[in-house]
Amino acid sequence: MRLREKNPVTKEMIETIRNKGFENKSKLWVAVAEDLNRVRRKRYEVNLNRLEKYAKAREKIVVPGVVLGNGEVKKRLEVAALKFSGKAKEKIEKAGGKCLTIEEMFKENPKGKGIRIMG
């Protein structure tokens, strides 16, 4: 896989997640690494109203892109993303949820059990 990312920190994260995903036989983390390696203009942008509509309460979700603050979240969610807008982070935490980086969620759960990709 050719890495498109120019940011050295993100590039290293993609390589680490992909390699460890293969080692742990975790299709989820390999898919996240491939989604993060997309061209920037095609990366995922997920609004809170989409999280509210499709996620179940207390679910762990990975967004290989950006979480935006359009909409409301009433469910307690644990969301990992590349970036969060200020409003999105505020609304998720106000609902009792957690905002994590993708690396933090990967370290907590390297096998990827019980996590869902949303993009």
Can you walk through the features of this model?
The protein is α/β, with parallel strands linked by helices and 119 residues long. It has a single domain, classed as Ribosomal Protein L15, Chain: K, domain 2, CATH 3.100.10.10. It is 41% helix and 23% strand. It is built from 5 helices and 5 strands. Strands 1, 2, 3, 4 and 5 form a 5-stranded parallel β-sheet that branches. Strand 1, helix 3 and strand 2 form a beta-alpha-beta unit. Helix 1 packs antiparallel against helix 2. The longest helix has 16 residues. It is globular, with a radius of gyration of 14 Å. The model has no long low-confidence stretch (mean pLDDT 93).
Brief sketch in words of this structure:
By secondary structure, the chain is of the alpha/beta class.
Which features characterize this protein?
Ribosomal Protein L15, Chain: K, domain 2, 119 residues, 41% helix, globular, alpha/beta, 5 helices, five-stranded parallel β-sheet
